[in-house]
Amino acid sequence: MSMTLPPSGGSELTPGPGVPGPGSGAGVPPAPTRRGNSVWRDAFTRLRRNPAAIAGAVIVLLFLLVAAFAPLIAPFGGNDLPGRKEIIPTHIPGPGEFEQYLLGLDRFGGDVFSKLVWGARASLVIGVVSTAFGLAGGMVLGLLAGGFGGWVDNVIMRFVDILLSVPNLLLAVSIAAVLGQGQYAVMIAIGVSAVPIFARLLRSSMLQNKGADYILAAQTLGLSRRTITMSHLLPNSVGPVIVQATLTLATAVIDAAALSFLGLGGGLPQTAEWGRMLTYAQAELGIAPQLAFLPGACIAITALGFTLLGESLRESLDPKSR
Asked: Is the pTM here over 0.85, yes or no?
């Protein structure tokens, strides 16, 4: 082994090339580098430990499975869907034939269980489409208001304030009454009523992040306002909006049932929809209260699942709760 004298001329010997020194930590493996978690990964970890989030996820997953596999679960198909066996039987069932109807029949002779299953699909379609419509419109308005500011912000926010001055359900009823009866009218009405909520939430989140260090650094580098807004500001401000979309799904299910209950949903009286089932169950409350209890319980449980999941997601993304 070759040794060389230290430059200072001292008596201490320095190891040659390839020989570890006394303080170099020979034989000790390097410390593992810890990779930081992203905000969404950390939120997912916190969700898995939250009992409320697990309960909400189970309810929502069950609702989605029932809606997706309605043709396989329901013994009778929707009466307004061509090519499937109708909910209404073609004859009056005899004494021994009632066993095939798990929850009995309603005033139209339709299978209650099949209507509940197909009603889950109708509520899912209305909730998802109306929430997506409101989310898209609200993000456009919030992006313009938060990105440009000035007179653009003032004009958009005054329009949003006008919409927010009307109660959510009343605004949806007014829009559905103007558009006419029908499922599409219900989707548009619920979506428009949700637009101001998403717009104000995104705008406030963008204004809060405008003074962040990464925005100041991007401005110092000379990036354009469009690049800063679309590549940095918007992706870091959309988190609360996504959480609100989960909560809006619960509201959309309730509003869809309310509009159908008021007769604005359109369709035939025997259409498989939870709100419509509540409407025609009022006449049988004294003799068959389950006709009103079952669709009401489906609406309440579904809304509870989305609410638990949305609130748990909001808590997991909130830095103050960490």
From this structure: no
